[in-house]
Each structure stands twice: as C-alpha cells, then as structure tokens.
Amino acid sequence: MIETNLTPLMLSLKVAALSTSFVFVLGMVFARWMTQKDFWGKNVLESFFLLPLVLPPTVVGFGLLMLFGKNGFLGQLLHEWFNITVVFTLTGAVIASIVVSFPLMYQSAVAAFTGVDQRLENAARTMGASEWRLFWTVTFPLAWPGLLAGFVLSFARGLGEFGATLMLAGYIPGKTDTIPVAIYFAVEAGQMDKALFWVIIIVSLGMGTTLWLNWWSRRNVRRYANQK
C-alpha cells in the first residue's frame, strides 16, 4: 500500500511559492533595469543571469554549496551575523529554486517590458508622472500578461527542481524531501509504487499549470484580436 504522507507535496508547494515570490520581484526589477539601461558589459551580465538555464543543476547546486556552505562567504556571514544555516534546510531548497527559476522570470519580464509601447510611457512622462507612478499605472498593466506567464513558469520550475536542491538542501525526511527528491530516494530504495505515486502528482501539477497558462494566453490573444 502506498504511503499517504503528503509532506513532500506540502514542502514542494511551500518552496515553489516562496521562491516564485522572490523571483517575481527580482525578475521584474532586473528586467526593467536592463531594458532601460545600456552600459558596457551588459551582454555579459545578461548571460550570467541566464546561466542556470544551460548549466546542469548539479553544477548550480555545487556553486551554491560553495557559496552558502559552512566555509562559504555567504554561509559564514549568515551564520555569524544572523545564526542562519542554509545547507540541509528548507531555506536551502528555496534558494536553489530561486536561482534555477530566475532566468525564466527574467526572460519573460524582458519580453513583456520590451513589448510595451514607448509612446504611451513618454506621454505619461510629459503629463508629469513620476517613474514610480508610470511603472504601476502604465508599464505594469501593459506588461502584465508576460509577467504572469513568467510567474507561472517560474512556479512550475521551482516545483520540479531537483539537482541544485539535492546538492544544497539534501534529503531530510519531513524537512527537505520535496517531491522530486522523494521520487529519487524512493527509486533508490526500490519503492516503485511510492515513486510512481509522486510522479503522478507532480506530472498532474505540471500539466495543470501549463494547460492553464496555454488557455489563458489563447484567451488574451483572442481578446486582443477582437479589440483591433
């Protein structure tokens, strides 16, 4: 009989929700800045932002382990100043998810902000709107469809993160055993029924997320076409 402990599901949803909240804000901030500024080294910085997309998750996890580990710069800083430990904690899982899902949000936000009509923004400026008010009353509403798409994709990516999470957060039942990690160790232990159960759960979540995003995108495309 399959174990009915739903802790991995709860942990996965918690990690995905927390990481996506951070990624949504960070992705918007950096995307807005990058679309408005032109400076030396911009391409290098943007390549760095997108690096987690092309690196194996274990490489990303190794880098995070070196950074947040016991002897890492940020790891020592957090432990000495705030008594916070990242390795083998749920915080580590959230950080890993933030890093691997950030490129998806960043790319979506860049595309969304680039698609905003600059004439509308300039018109708001001529009417005396501050940059802060301009962003929330003009730019953000116009870019919202692309930003929402990035949010949903980042959530799905955070939900399914495995490699970097395993490297940084490890496998501690009841604390860091998210669904992907639970699947791996269930297979390692020969518990194929348990692994299949979690595979069905995460596939259902991922499929539901992408189906909703596709439906929402098509609806907005049709609405835009009808308004023309």
UniProtKB/TrEMBL annotation:
Subcellular localization(s) per the UniProt record: Cell membrane
Pfam family, one: BPD_transp_1
Coiled coil: none
Keywords linked to the UniProt accession: Cell membrane, Membrane, Molybdenum, Transmembrane, Transmembrane helix, Transport
The UniProt record lists the keyword Cell inner membrane: no
Record has Transport as a keyword: yes
Entries under Gene3D superfamilies matching the protein: MetI-like
InterPro entries given in the database record: MetI-like, MetI-like_sf, ModB_ABC
PROSITE patterns found in the cross-reference section: ABC_TM1 (PS50928)
Every ABC transmembrane type-1 domain range: 9-211
Membrane topology field: Multi-pass membrane protein
Sequence intervals crossing the membrane: 15-35, 47-69, 81-104, 134-156, 195-216
NCBIfam families cross-referenced by the UniProt entry: modB_ABC (TIGR02141)
Family: Belongs to the binding-protein-dependent transport system permease family. CysTW subfamily.
Protein name according to UniProt: Molybdenum transport system permease
Natural source organism: Brevibacillus porteri
Originating gene: modB
